[in-house]
Every structure is written in C-alpha cells, then in structure tokens.
Design brief:
The complex is a heterodimer of chains A (about 170) and B (about 200). Chain A is built from seven helices and no strands. Classes of the chains: A mainly alpha (about 170), B mainly alpha (about 200). Chains A and B meet through helix 1, helix 2, helix 3, helix 4 and helix 5 of A and helix 3, helix 4, helix 5, helix 6 and helix 7 of B.
C-alpha cells in the first residue's frame, strides 16, 4: 500500500511538470502507458470508465488524477494523487505570479505561442490513444468521428456530445 | 480589483462555485465568478493571469486559483481556494465513479453507454487538436505563413511519437517544445524586421 502510494506520488508529481498548455487530458497517453501497461493497476475497460467519469462529471478535468488514485488505492490514493499533481504547479504559479505582478511579459507570450502546435498534436494523440482503448466496433469509431467533426465545426458545450453519445450507447447496447 | 480584498470565506465560496461549474474547461466559470460576479479582477487582469497560467505546467484553472488567491491573502487564501476548487467536485466524481462501477457490473446497457461516452471523449480530443491545428494554419502574415510548415511538422511529430511509438511524454514535450520555441522565436524576429 505504502509502496503504491509512493509510486502514485512520484509518477503524478513528475507528470504534472509536463501538463503544458493547461490540458491534463494531453497526458492521457502517458497515464495509460503507466497505469494500464506498466503497473497493471487497471485494465483498458476500467481506464475507459475513469476517462468517461472524469469528463462527464462536473469539475476540472485534472480530477482524472485523483480518480485514478482512488481506483488504485482508495481515499489515500485520491488525496496523494491530487496533492502530488498540484504541488509543483502551485509553487511555480505563486512564484511566477509574484514576480510578474502587473508586468507585461514577452517570454510568457512566446512560451504560449510555442506550446500551441505541441499541445494541438498532443490532443490528437490523446484522442487516438483513448479511441484505441474503447473503439472495438464500427459503431464506436463512428461516434468518435462524428464527435470530432462536431467539436471542430459546432460551438457548444462539449458535455452535450458526451451525453448524446451515452444515451445513444444505452439505446443501442 | 475591488476596493477591499475578499475574505477567506468569500474566496472559498467563489472557488467552490467555479469548481462545480467547470465542465469542459474552467475558463468560463473562472471569468464569470472572478470578473463578472465578484469583481475581484478587471477583464485585463484576468486575461493576463490566465495567459501566464496557461504557459506554466499544471492545470490552468488551479494555476489561476493559486495566483489570484495568493494576491489576496497569501498562502492561507491559496490553500483555501484550491481546496474549494478541487475537493467538492472530486468527492462528487468519486461518488459517480463508485456508482458507475456498480452499475457496469450489473447492466450491459450501462457498459455500452459508458463506452460510447469514452468514444465521444476520444472524438472531442481529436476535434480539439484539429481545431487548434486549423487556427495555426490560418496564418495572416507572410512571415507567419513561412513558419506554418514547422508548426504542422511539430503537430505531426507529436502525434506519431506519442500515439504510434508510445514515447515517454516528458521527452516528447522537452524536445518538441524546444524546437517550437526556436521556430516561434525566429518567426517573431522575422515579423519584427518586416514591421520595422
């Protein structure tokens, strides 16, 4: 148990440094690699369930991290995961926030610009990895493609696509 | 900024509300509560802080919460803000997860629904990425157009390295972020030369 908690703390602490551009979802390929393939904490189906709940439940998307922690090591896992993932960004934010107070900064603007293509690619990669865990039937692939098209061309709260797909899945399945 | 800094209780309530109303990103509830309703920040202050939060590692919403609360009340306010932002929605999500696990053990219909939601989430991610790529492709200056091949290259490399080769994400981020920084820096230098 202690060993699992330490692993959670270390792995999620390191990963928090690489959650760039604000999206924790772009880390999903790495989470899948570690949680499913390396440590065998959960299988593909349980991993898919974690993603579905973390996206469909109200709250910030990085709740996927404490959700994984909870699945693997109950409440201690959830809290260790949450604290491990938030600590380094918290220290960085407060430090940078104090330094930059009321000052325009060019480095920040350049950094944000540089992250855009990288996070764009990482979003797509993340989508592909998630699709591979669940899209085993043609119908699933169709859902993924339709929602991708909707996300590109329609301005709407993404929750509606999830709800729509869930209802459809329940009716057909 | 408002005349008097908010109290700890106000910060807690504000961030509980932001956390629970964050669906598909915390940006709009953050802005609504802090700028529109509570008037803790001006529109410019907010977009500046949001920009910095996005450039730092970690979840943008949590970074914004930390920076804003630290301004108002140092460490105690920061911890209160983050607890308010994360914990209520975390308890809710864990409750839902426990319920979902029980339901999926007994109902194949529920499993099908859950799978469909995850398929939709995959589509959402892919759509988000493509939308970002399209924005980068629609360059408006000649200098920007010159560098867009580099951007598309970085997008493509990220996809291949992660989704095909399962490369360690920290390495991908370090390599491609450096490459992207160099190309964006060059692009900006070129733009400056043209406007000068």
């Amino acid at each position: 148990m202690t060993e699992t908690l330490l692993t959670i703390a270390l792995r999620f602490g390191v990963l928090s440094l690489f959650a760039i551009g604000g999206g924790v979802s772009i880390l999903i390929p790495q989470l899948h690699e570690e949680v499913v393939r390396q440590y065998h904490w959960v299988d593909d189906r349980a991993f898919a369930e974690l993603i579905a709940i973390s996206q469909a439940s109200p709250g910030p998307n990085f709740l996927l991290i404490p959700l994984i922690g909870w699945r693997v090591a109950s409440w201690p896992g959830a809290f260790v995961g949450l604290v491990a993932f938030m600590s380094i960004p918290l220290v960085l934010s407060v430090t940078v926030g104090r330094i930059l107070h009321d000052r325009e900064n060019e480095t920040i603007a350049l950094l944000r610009r540089a992250f855009r293509p990288l996070t764009g690619g990482m979003w797509i990669a993340s989508g592909i990895v998630v699709a591979r865990t669940v899209d085993h039937a043609v119908a699933d692939v169709v859902v993924t493609i339709i929602v991708a098209a909707c996300a590109i061309f329609v301005e709407a709260n993404p929750l509606w696509w999830c709800v729509g797909a869930g209802v459809l899945g329940a009716l057909i399945g | 900024m408002s005349a008097r800094p908010p109290t700890l209780a106000e910060i807690l309530l504000g961030f509980v509300q932001i956390g629970l109303s964050s669906v598909g990103g915390a940006a709009s509830p953050l802005r609504y509560v802090m700028v529109v309703r509570q008037r803790w920040l001006s529109e410019t202050d907010f977009s500046e802080i949001f920009g910095v939060a996005q450039a730092l590692p970690g979840a943008t919403g949590a970074n914004v919460a930390a920076m804003v609360a630290d301004r108002f009340g140092g460490l105690p306010a920061t911890l209160v803000a983050l607890a308010g932002f994360c914990l209520p929605s975390m308890f809710l999500a864990i409750g839902l997860l426990a319920l979902a696990t029980r339901l999926s053990a007994s109902s194949s219909r529920f499993v099908a629904a859950e799978t469909a939601v995850t398929s939709a989430v995959a589509g959402l991610f892919i759509g988000n990425g493509i939308r970002m790529a399209l924005v980068l492709w629609k360059a408006n200056t000649a200098e920007q157009r010159r560098w867009r091949a580099a951007r598309v290259g970085i997008i493509a490399l990220a996809i291949v390295l992660i989704a095909v080769f399962h490369m360690w994400i920290p390495a991908v981020v370090l390599i491609l972020a450096s490459a992207s920084l160099v190309s964006e820096w060059q692009a900006r230098k070129g733009e400056r030369k043209q406007t000068a």
